[in-house]
Write a structure and sequence with these properties.
With about 1150 residues, the chain is mainly β. It has nine domains: about 290 residues, Methylamine Dehydrogenase, Chain H; about 100 residues, Sandwich (Immunoglobulin-like), CATH 2.60.40.10; about 80 residues, Immunoglobulins (Immunoglobulin-like), CATH 2.60.40; about 80 residues, Immunoglobulin-like (Sandwich), CATH 2.60.40; about 80 residues, Sandwich (Immunoglobulin-like); about 80 residues, Immunoglobulin-like, CATH 2.60.40.10; about 80 residues, Immunoglobulin-like (Sandwich), CATH 2.60.40; about 170 residues, Sandwich (Immunoglobulin-like); and more. The chain is built from six helices and 105 strands. The strands form 25 sheets. Strands 41, 43, 44, 45, 47 and 48 form a six-stranded mixed beta sheet that branches. Strands 30, 32, 33, 36 and 37 form a five-stranded antiparallel beta sheet that branches. The N terminus is likely disordered.
Length: about 1150
């Protein structure tokens, strides 16, 4: 039997709520079985719930529930299965159902108490028995109106219509007889008596209408009536209270539902129609009251309605056992033949209408069934009686009754038949006609086909160009003619491509040849499929430029570049790069000293072939790090009234230093500033940006104007008093002066406020002796006065580094002065400083990337403290610690290590080897060396792609006698590592001494052979330098490798930062930034997804659970998030991969 499968996957945007999803589930039901068929359909009238349950017999599932009138009893289905008629016993009406939409399209009033009903095989009339009115109403199906009322016996129940639609038989319960109605006259033609007190109830007939089977409610028997003789020919005892009967399609069995079975067990009696005896009683579950019964059109299954339990039982006719139970409405009755008939179909699969080049074709027919437009689920029993009538060229081709069904199991819906004529068909037009009749006497629609036999192939008459030609231009037109104007010419080539066909007799195919040899095939195919093939070979020699250096997007550390490469497809050519002529040697070219500007440069390489003037170009981009510099202030021509100028500006490129007139400038990002002394008159300010590669100079001029007044100024301090003791960090200094209006006053360098002839300034007071000096300046004249005071408050001055300095190092030295009592101590960030007098120095204080706060604390002997802070920031910095520059290495590989000060997720590689990065340090294992001089290039790349390089030169003495490798250089704690020791000389290993943690604790392992192995275990996070010493007959040799053991919690935090960064970018609507957290393949995959869902991302991301670790392995982090969407829990796995730059990026979600 079929099974119900329903699979719903809501991805990111699902149903708009639980209610909406539930409504969809009710409206659309997904049914699956092996053959994807449906029907025939069983229509079960539910007396207690006033509706009809529609069962798809393909899977025994309720497909629909249709509301009808009150108390529905009887049911009948139209021969074409498009209409269902239901007798509403209580509602005194007949509901007309459109079976294609499962909806009621009309209601026909019937008086009184309609019970059973049947439709004529021609589909024109429905006959409805009225239980109380003792008559039969005739409904015209064309307009759903009652056209006649025919009196019959008392309390009529069952009704059937003969196959020729001319006779109607009615079972009269109270008068114990059967009324025979002449359907052409709508009048009673005869009455067939039945035994007294038999109380006939249900009626069934054979397909040929030769026999009636009548259930006797009170006699517990079934009566066999010969319709020709109009007499009872047999009486068959069955169960108690038989209600309905149904005849198998092959008339071999009759099934009777016994409403009240013996010994309180209800049953279905199975009658052998040949011997008129009961073969068996199929027991039904206790409490079941069977009512209506119908046989599936293929005869394999019997459906029985259970009035008492609200179910329909499905019986296997072969084993007489219940194989399924379908729950329907309340009090299902289903009185009548309630299963629709399939509609037979026939089609011609081959040959198709049109032209044939085979004069002896095989005709293949497909036959099947449809139910409401869908393939029906029937077995071979149904198809066993199919008959095919066919004529070829108006001559019968004989009976084709041997069909080939697709299968004999339930769920198949058709098969095929074939016919091959014995003789050759004539050239020209031929015709075929065919039609199939099924076991119920219904015909398929007539099938007609016309086709033309043509066995003569077309011929090529002309063809250009000639095969074997060589071309410098790829544009070639292939053309010619054929002798058949109806034929199609097809052009194809593995090198050029495939083109649509053209009609004859003349054809042209404009073609663009591919470089090299082009094999072109031409096929002429006529309408019958006869074809002629020909081919030609053409060679195209293209002119092509190839740039070998530099590569696209290469960095250039200078303001010039040399471009080199070669060309093909020409013996001689001229080449230029950005208009600069290149030197050509054979097919190779070199353009030297091509100028660059700072930043992105486009290099356009242009080649001109000498043979024909053909021009080819090749374009690439490079990025120049040559510096540029611009002064933004002062403007050219500015004037100053002082003897110095603050010069500021911007620069680009890899600038190491900036000077202005020889004065070193302060750098901040891409900005510089310098205070430059000025001389009277015109001054030339020259700002110079210096790198290792180039220097750029910008010249500006400035003038200085000075006004001098000859008056003699004076000044006096009135507060504080001389020799005063001050326990404050500052003091307000005030006094009086005499001087001109342009007078300026400073106190210990602090500008004073001037009011009339008085001044005031607040200045710092240091511990111990202080001199307060007031300076008055007017023009070129200065005078001063001073008082001495004593400070008793400790103070700190940080002289280096300066506040907000940017430091390109991983450590810093903090120095300065302090004022305080003798024997005071100084610390910086809790690190003791060296104190000399009143100066202090704390060297090599570690810095973290970004902002750092340095706190200097002076502690007096009485433990009182005074603190001062300075904030500095760091830039990404990498320092190579090992090996030393110029070191000699006794081996062909090396462990390269150093320090790294950089943002989170900065990757490090050494000559392409991805380094372990751990707590500000990096370790690159087994970096290969070549004998002789080697350059170690260390590249550290930030997550945004910003990269920088450090280099180191070493010399290799040659191959190390042994090589030590690890199966894992990184991994999460606890980590197991297997070291492999391999001889590179073939000398057997004697011992392996291993220091697993680099702390001097050595384990010795004895080996015998050219290879050895060591297993190590690291339970705790950290980086361990494993020193391995191998001893063989030639001596001892050592090698070190670094093993980094991750802290899983730290890795969780790290990957969560990457995940959160992407999500925050999506919430902000910044797709470009979000994609930067993904690797290249993931960007291609998820870019369109972000486009479609960007506006929904805040809601989607809010529904995710926190990132949870699934597994950690070298180079891969597997994590998961859970999302609850409309009550459904969904798990998404997130994969983080470390790329070749050492950067972790999201690969898959």
């Amino acid at each position: 039997m079929g099974t119900l499968k329903r699979f719903v996957w809501i991805m990111l945007l699902g149903c708009a709520g639980v209610i909406a999803c539930a409504e969809q589930a009710q409206a659309v039901r997904t049914i699956s079985n092996e053959s994807n068929t449906s029907g025939p359909y069983a229509y079960i009238t539910n007396y207690g719930s006033n509706n009809v349950s529609v069962i798809d017999t393909a899977n025994d599932a309720v497909l629909a529930i249709i509301a009808v009138g009150y108390g529905p009893y009887g049911v009948t289905v139209s021969p074409d299965a498009t209409r269902v008629y239901v007798a509403n016993y209580v509602g005194n009406s007949v509901s007309v159902i459109d079976a294609t939409t499962n909806s009621v399209l009309a209601t026909v009033p019937i008086a009184t108490r309609p019970y059973g009903l049947a439709i004529s095989p021609d589909g024109r009339h429905v006959y409805v028995v009225a239980y109380f009115s003792n008559n039969v109403s005739v409904i015209d199906t064309a307009n759903n109106t009652v056209t006649a009322t025919i009196p019959v016996g008392q309390r009529p129940h069952g009704v059937v219509v003969s196959r020729d639609s001319k006779q109607v038989y009615v079972a009269n319960y109270a008068t114990n007889d059967i009324t025979v109605i002449d359907a052409t006259l709508n009048s009673v033609a005869a009455t067939i008596p039945l035994p007294a007190n038999s109380n006939p109830f249900g009626l069934a007939q054979t397909l040929d209408s030769s026999k009636l089977y009548v259930t006797g409610w009170s006699s517990n028997a079934v009566y066999v009536v010969d319709t020709a003789r109009k007499a009872v020919t047999a009486t068959i005892p069955v169960g108690v209270r038989p209600v309905s009967a149904a005849v198998a399609p092959d008339a071999s069995r009759v099934y009777v539902s016994n409403y009240n079975g013996s010994t309180s067990i209800t049953s279905v009696s199975v009658i052998d129609a040949a011997s008129n005896t009961v073969l068996t009683h199929i027991p039904l579950p206790s409490g079941v009251a069977p009512s209506g019964v119908s046989v599936h059109p293929d005869g394999n299954w019997v459906y029985v309605a259970s009035y008492s339990t609200g179910a329909v039982f499905v019986i296997d006719a072969a084993s007489n056992t219940i194989i399924n139970t379908v729950t329907v409405g309340t009090r299902p009755y289903a009185f009548g033949n309630f299963i629709s008939l399939p509609q037979p179909t026939l089609s011609l699969d081959a040959p198709g209408s049109g032209f044939l080049n085979n004069p002896v074709p095989t005709f293949i027919f497909s036959y099947g069934t449809q139910c409401n437009g869908n393939p029906c689920q029937v077995s071979n029993n149904y198809f066993s009686t199919f008959g095919l009538n066919a004529q070829l060229n108006n001559q019968p081709i004989g009976s084709l009754t041997t069909f080939s069904p697709t299968s004999s199991v339930r769920g198949q819906s058709g098969g095929s038949a074939s016919y091959t004529p014995a003789n050759r068909l004539p050239e020209g037009t031929n015709s075929l006609n065919a039609q199939v009749q099924d076991r119920f006497g219904r015909f398929t629609s007539p099938l007609t086909a016309a086709f033309t036999v043509d066995t003569i192939a077309p011929k090529f008459l002309t063809l250009t160009p000639a095969s074997g030609g060589v071309y410098l231009n790829p544009a070639v037109t292939v053309g010619g003619s054929i002798d058949d104007p109806t034929a199609n010419i097809y052009f194809s080539s593995m090198q050029v491509g495939f083109f649509s066909n053209q009609k004859g007799p003349n054809f042209t195919f404009p073609t663009s040849l591919a470089p090299g040899l082009n094999n072109i095939n031409l096929s002429a195919i006529d309408l019958a499929g006869n074809n002629t093939n020909t081919s030609l070979s053409l060679t195209y020699t293209p002119f092509t430029l190839h740039v070998s250096s530099p590569q696209n997007n290469d960095p250039i550390y200078g303001n010039q570049v040399t471009v080199s490469g070669h060309f093909s497809g020409a013996s001689n050519a001229g080449v230029s790069v950005n208009g600069i002529a290149a030197s050509v040697n054979g097919v190779n070219f070199t353009a030297a000293n091509v100028p660059l500007v700072s930043g992105t440069n486009t290099l356009l390489v242009t080649g001109t072939r000498a043979d024909d003037g053909k021009v080819q170009t090749q374009q690439l981009s490079v990025f120049s790090y040559a510096p540029s510099i611009a002064i933004t202030a002062p403007l050219n021509g500015a004037t100053f009234t002082g003897n110095s100028a603050l010069v500021t500006g911007t620069f680009t490129g890899l600038v190491a230093a900036v000077t202005v007139n020889g004065v070193a400038a302060t750098l901040s990002g891409n900005n510089f500033s310098a205070s430059v002394p000025l001389v009277f008159g015109i001054n030339t300010l020259v700002a110079t940006a210096t790198t290792a590669a180039a220097v750029t100079v910008i010249r500006l001029s400035a003038t200085q104007t000075v006004n001098v007044t000859s008056s003699a100024p004076s000044i006096a301090i009135t507060s504080p008093a001389a020799n005063a003791t001050l326990n404050t960090a500052t003091v307000a200094v005030s006094g009086t002066f005499n001087g001109p209006s342009n007078t300026s006053i400073t106190v210990n360098g602090v500008a004073a406020a001037i009011t009339n002839n008085t001044f005031s300034a607040t200045v710092p007071v240091h511990y111990g002796a202080n001199t307060l000096t007031a300076n008055l300046a007017t023009g070129a004249t200065t005078v001063s006065t001073a008082v001495a005071v004593t400070g008793t408050l400790q103070s700190i001055n940080i002289t280096a580094p300066v506040a907000n300095a940017t430091i390109a190092a991983s450590s810093v030295t903090v120095s300065g002065t302090f004022q305080g009592s003798a024997n005071s101590t100084v610390s910086v960030n809790d690190v003791a400083a060296t104190v000399t007098g009143n100066t202090y120095t704390a060297a090599n204080l570690p810095l973290t990337f970004g902002s750092n706060t340095l706190t200097v604390t002076v502690t007096a002997p009485d433990n009182s403290t005074t603190s001062a802070t300075v904030t500095v920031s760091t830039t990404p910095t990498l320092t190579i610690a090992s090996p030393a520059d110029g070191a000699s290495i006794n081996g062909d590989s090396i462990l390269v290590s150093g320090t790294l000060l950089a943002p989170i997720n900065t990757g490090v590689t050494v000559n392409g080897v991805v380094a372990n990065v751990d707590n500000g340090k990096f370790y690159a294992n087994n970096v290969p060396l070549q004998p002789g001089a080697n350059t170690l290039t260390v590249i550290y790349t930030q997550a945004d792609g910003t990269a920088a390089t450090q280099t180191r030169s070493v010399n290799s003495a040659g191959t190390n006698p042994f090589q030590v490798t690890a199966d894992a250089y990184t991994g999460a704690a606890p980590l197991s590592v297997n070291l492999a020791v391999t001889s590179q000389t073939g000398s057997p290993i004697e011992t392996i001494d291993v220091d697993p943690g680099g702390n001097g604790s050595v384990d010795s392992i004895t080996a015998n052979g050219p290879n050895g192995s060591v297993s190590l275990a690291y339970p705790a996070p950290g980086t361990y330098i494993v020193n391995v010493m191998v001893t063989d007959a030639l001596g001892s040799h050592s090698q070190a490798v670094a093993i980094t053991v991750w802290d899983p919690a730290q890795m969780d935090s790290f990957f969560n930062a990457v995940w959160t960064g992407m999500n925050n970018a999506l919430i902000a609507g910044d797709k470009a930034k979000a994609l930067s957290y993904l690797n290249a393949s993931a960007q291609v995959k998820y870019g369109p997804v972000f486009d479609a869902l960007l506006s929904f991302m805040p809601e989607i991301i809010a529904s995710y659970s926190p990132l949870a670790r699934a597994s950690l392995s070298p180079g891969i982090g597997e994590y998961a998030v859970k999302r609850i969407n409309n009550g459904n829990a969904q798990i998404f796995f997130i994969y983080f991969l470390q790329d070749m730059r050492g950067i972790w990026q999201i690969d898959e979600m």
